[in-house]
Specification:
It is a single chain. This protein has 2 domains: 4-226, 3-Layer(aba) Sandwich (Rossmann fold), CATH 3.40.50.300; 239-367, OB fold (Dihydrolipoamide Acetyltransferase, E2P) (Beta Barrel). Helices cover 24% and strands 38% of the residues. It is built from 9 helices and 20 strands. β1 and β2 (20-30) form a beta hairpin. The structure holds adenosine-5'-triphosphate. Adenosine-5'-triphosphate binds at residues 15, 17, 19, 21, 39, 41-47, 195. Residues 6-237 form the ABC transporter domain. InterPro entries: AAA+_ATPase, ABC_SmlMolc_Importer, ABC_transporter-like_ATP-bd, ABC_transporter-like_CS, Mo/tungstate-bd_C_term_dom, P-loop_NTPase, Transp-assoc_OB_typ2.
Length: 368
């Protein structure tokens, strides 16, 4: 028995007509993991999901489920179920009939169909709408029904394609939480496609970031947020402050970067052998770790900290927080979020000189 529920090996998809949608996609998923796929529109998330579901043929590479080769197996013979954004609920059937349908197609006997249908209706707490038709359901209810329809088949892997995309923000948040609890409770592997980074990070045990058909990074949400491995991830995920420069050297787990602001240090995200002194790199610091103080207050002089000097160009209050935009010589302005009280106490004002300071160990150096 394989240790993995799902393995993708060099998965590739070229559509008829020649569009290269996915290339060199490698992934190993453990049983019960919640994996999010995130990336900009057209990066290949849905295509990858559809290849796993068997709804799209695989051009080359291999797809294993629990160690067994499913690369060219038909969709209905795969132990997967798919939830689509548009729910795909049959309008002429009741909720219960919709849920039972997938079991009837599989030829289960009627007592077993009833037992499973009732159990999943109970689990998802949709007993009150079991006789309703689609036209009478709210967005959140449709979402639950489509989830029930997928789960009732007891798949090894549940595939979800932007399942919350059609819901308003509040409902989306509460269904996200429910979905996460349900997944932990059932212990089923979920593969969840979204283009919303906050959703990918809050739901996934691991997140796969895709760009232009390729995997950019596969990491836990925290690592993705704090230790980007590529310029794309540094820009796409989180709220990073980026300073470009040239590598001076990288050793003992520290990389030094020559920038407009002098030499700054960070943890290298590349193999030390792969990037040479003089190569283009970027220093990336998550804004949560960047402190803003009045120039010369001395915070930056602490051991292990780096500082760059700038000028406040604007301060924009939004409730308890303020956005301070800082102009820096030679690079784009940086926007810092801070507590209003702190900014007032520090006496920061437009036109004032400030220091931006962070612990060097919080910064990451990425090969450009
Ligand atoms: N049936 C198809 N035939 C030809 N090209 C396709 C087809 N489906 C998708 N593509 C192309 O493949 C690439 C990847 O598309 P895909 O839908 O997988 O991206 P995505 O990341 O899911 O995007 P979105 O977030 O917009 O759904 C795109 O360039 C798209 O135009």
């Amino acid at each position: 028995m394989s240790a993995y529920d799902l393995e993708l090996k060099k998965l590739k998809k070229v559509y008829p007509g020649g569009t290269l949608a996915v290339e060199a996609f490698d992934l190993q998923v453990e049983k019960g993991e919640f994996i999010s796929f995130v990336g900009p529109s057209g990066c290949g998330k849905t295509t990858t999901l559809r290849m796993i579901a068997g709804l799209e043929s695989i051009t080359s590479g291999e797809l294993l489920i629990r160690g067994k080769d499913f690369t060219h197996v038909r969709a209905e013979q795969r132990p997967t179920a798919t939830i689509f954004q548009n729910y795909a609920i049959f309008p002429h059937m009741s909720v219960a009939e919709n849920i039972a349908f997938g079991l009837q197609v599989r030829g289960l006997d009627s007592a077993e169909i009833k037992r499973r249908t009732d159990a999943i209706i109970d689990k998802l707490q949709i007993g009150d709408i079991r006789d309703a038709r689609e036209s009478a359901l709210s967005g959140g209810q449709k979402q639950r029904v489509s989830l029930a329809r997928g789960l009732v088949t007891e798949p090894d892997i549940l595939l979800l394609d932007e399942p919350l995309g059609a819901l308003d923000a509040n409902l989306r948040k509460s269904i996200q939480e429910e979905l996460k609890i349900l997944q932990r409770d059932l212990g089923i592997t979920f593969i969840f496609v979204t283009h919303a980074q906050s959703e990918a990070l809050s739901m996934g045990d691991r997140v796969v970031v895709m760009n232009a058909g390729r995997v950019e990074q596969i990491s836990s949400p925290f690592d993705l947020y704090t230790r980007p491995k590529s310029p794309f991830v540094a820009r796409f995920i989180g709220r990073n402050k980026i300073i470009e420069g040239k590598l001076e050297d990288a050793r003992d787990g520290r990389a030094r970067v020559k920038t407009n602001f002098g030499t700054l240090a960070g943890v290298p995200s590349f193999d030390p052998g792969r990037v040479r002194p003089g190569d283009d790199v970027m220093l990336v610091a998550p804004s949560e770790y960047v402190e803003i103080t009045r120039a010369g207050s001395g915070v930056g002089l602490q051991e292990g900290h780096d500082t760059v000097a700038g000028t406040v160009s604007s301060i924009e209050p939004v409730g308890q927080v303020v956005y301070v935009t800082v102009a820096l010589p030679g690079i784009k302005p940086i926007r810092i979020e801070a507590y209003r009280e702190k900014i007032e106490q520090a006496g920061l004002e437009p036109g004032g000189a400030v220091d931006l300071t962070w612990k060097a160990e919080r910064a990451t150096v990425v090969a450009a």
